[in-house]
Every structure is written in structure tokens, then in C-alpha cells.
Amino acid sequence: MSIAETRSAAGGGLNSEFRRGVASCAPVLFGTIPYALVLGAQATQRGLSTAELSLLTGLNFAGGSEFAAIQLWTSPPHVLLIAAVTFLVNSRHLLMGAALAPFLRDLPRRKVFSALFFMCDESWALGLADAKRRAPPRHPGGGRGGVGVARAEQHREQRQQHGDHQRDVA
Questions:
Q1: Which of 8, 52, 69, 125 has its CB surrounded by the most CB atoms within 10 Å?
Q2: What is the pLDDT of residues 108-119, one digit of tens each?
Q3: Nearest CA to 56 among 33, 89, 67, 45?
Q4: Considering only CA atoms, which of 74, 67, 80 is closest in space to residue 47?
């Protein structure tokens, strides 16, 4: 079940979904405070101003690569090295986005792209856990409901037909 289908089935509007999201994210927000303090302390040691750190975190928006960028910061900065390391550290977001794709397929592309653009580790973990919890139960046969069983049966029949065709050719 997609997010859009779940929202309409639940009968709740955007307001109730927003409140539910805020309630589930609040504990995570408190956990970011120590990371922000450590990042600020490291930025101060490297000589970055408040404006420079704000620009770095605003353009980068990924904790792990922000710490990597701070560690690589020199005067003048090696921008290509910092960009390459940032890309490598953040490449995990490609896999994280792919894991969310089945749950986002029924939403408009503009909503999907904006959600994936602002995705961070915490929002990914909360979103995926919520989507899996709200999805219909999986049944034996590999899929959701009878679709998985039907697909498995179809695949078995195709293999049998292919085997019969191989015997006819030989």
C-alpha cells in the first residue's frame, strides 16, 4: 500500500499525518543536538565562522559528510577533494532512496523528488519503518497477498514451458 492510499484509507487528512510525523520525529530531533555541538566545536577549531558553517551545513545537509568536510578543511580549501569525499560518503543515499521507491511510486514526482532531496539517515529510517509497518502483511510466495503466489506460479509455468521447448528442439 502506498503512502497516498494509506492516507486516504485512514481517513485522516494532511493535518493528522503531519502531527503523526512530528510526534515520531521529536525524539530524533533531541538526538541531533550532541552532533550539532560536536560539529560546531570542530568547525571552530578549523577556524570557520558561523556564516561559513551555516553555508556548509545548508549546502551539504548530511551529517557524515559534514564531519568529513570539516576534517578536510584547509586554508585555502581543496574544494574538489571535499566534493569527492562528500559524494562518496553520501552515495549511500542512492540505496536508501531505492529502498523507499516501492512506497513512493504512487505519489507525484515533485513530492517524491523533494522528499528524497531532503532525506537524511534519520528521516529515511523513520519513513521506511513507518511504511513497512503500514504496508499490508506479506504472504508466503514472496509478494503481497495473492499477487506473489500468482507470480510464483506464473514463473514456474514459464520454466516448464521453456523446458518443454528445449526438449522439442533437441
A1: 69
A2: 999 899 888 888
A3: 67
A4: 74
